[in-house]
Amino acid sequence: MPESPIRYFVTCARGLEGVVATELEDPRIGAASVEEGSSGVYFTGTLATGYRANLWLRSGVRVLAEHARANVRGPEELYAWARALPWTKLLRAEQTFSVEARVWDSAVTHSKYAALRIKDALCDAFRDKTGARPDVDVHRADLPLFLYLFKDQATLYRDMSGVTLHKRGYRDALHKSSLNECVAAAALQITGWHGQHALLDPMCGSGTFGIEAALIALNRAPGLARERWPFEGWPDFDANAWREAKEEARTAARESLDAPIFLNDVHRGAVGLARKDAAAAGVERFIEFSNCDVADYVPPAVPGTVITNPPWGERLKSEDPSEPWRKLGRFLKDRCRPSTAWIFSGNAELTRHLGMKADRRYPVMLGKTDCRLLKYEIHARA
Ligand SMILES: C[S@@+](CC[C@H](N)C(=O)[O-])C[C@H]1O[C@@H](n2cnc3c(N)ncnc32)[C@H](O)[C@@H]1O
Fold it and tell me: Do residues 96 and 195 both lie within one domain?
């Protein structure tokens, strides 16, 4: 009998739903009924589709597989519904679970309280049936659960990813101003760059754009480097489908790039970190690193695509925060003709100091910060 389709939801930063939808529709994942929501995208597919989404998604944050859905008005209905679910088919008493919840416009008004009611329901149902209950582990649960409660419509998901997908496995220490890997990969996909010409990040920090760019151009599945996936311990785990998905991903990877990637930063420590992370990602040999003020930097070749996010948050007291932006504007106009520059900014006031008018603007929410990916066509001199 054919497997009935599973409904999935992939979470992402607001503004990136279109990029995630395009990734899901790609044959490498092959999702069906892809539909953009708010801060996420719905799709349907088999277990194998879910596995491929976890392996291949670059811009998605978590892949959630729907487990149950109901209309619930208030905490007691939520508890009663959750308590009646067949938990012992999903989990053993010696395993662990966690519950996260998001609640809007519902009779249950607090996310933490909704999560607590689900936890109590699961434990009570287990105790009734087996005399024992699983423990909670918020970091490495065997069964991470996610509840969405919107206008009293509850959807309970099993979180296949566990740890969010931006943690690719190549970065242990977080550079305080590192761009989130999922956002960097989404921005790169918006640019249309896939390795066809040289790419430069002249203010690279820990090198997220360069590393993600190399992974895209090499067609490496970002999830291949991860060691642990919660779904590997689930009762419906399809080991053959998972092995096949990983094998396909390994075979699809390319060995070399057609064009170089240049990364530069004024801070030696940042370049060291970028080099270390690139080595951990196995892409160091495809990147040319340099350590220089953008005002003095001459790229080894004119790059077709420039992508960067200059500093906008952390203000060094001794520095004029507009200075890097002015230097970047001069650098683009003096040394990057012709190219397309893409600037990721969370500060419209500072962006003005580039002294250039954007040709296009793509809004992205980074946490509570309203950001823009800005496109500038830098034409050859007439
Ligand atoms: C927001 S961070 C970039 C973060 C980076 N995208 C990442 O993912 O790690 C901005 C970077 O600009 C660099 N920077 C600031 N002024 C610079 C200049 N004049 N020349 C080159 N780099 C500069 C800083 O050292 C910092 O690493």
Answer: no
- Mean pLDDT of the residues in the chain: 95
**Does 247 fall in a domain?**
no
CB under 8 Å, gap of 24 or more: what pairs does 369-375 form? 370/346, 371/15, 371/344, 371/345, 371/346, 372/344, 372/345, 372/346, 372/348, 373/187, 373/190, 373/342, 373/343, 373/344, 374/342, 374/343, 374/344, 374/345, 375/191, 375/340, 375/341, 375/342
The response to whether residue 205 sits with its C-beta less than 6 Å from ligand 1 reads: yes
Q: The whole model's pTM is what?
A: 0.95
| Ligand 1 center to 310 CA (angstroms) | 5
Residue 23 placed within a domain:
yes
**189-203 per-position pLDDT tens digit:** 999 999 999 999 999
> What is the CA(187)–ligand 1 centre distance, in A?
17
Number of domains in the chain: 2
CA of 282 to the centre of ligand 1 (A): 23
| Ligand 1 contact via 324 beta carbon (within 6 Å) | yes
**Would you say the CB of residue 206 lies under 6 angstroms from ligand 1?**
yes
**Are both 196 and 130 inside the same structural domain?**
no
Q: Which residues constitute the domain of residue 72? A: 6-159
Ligand 1 center to 205 CA (angstroms): 5
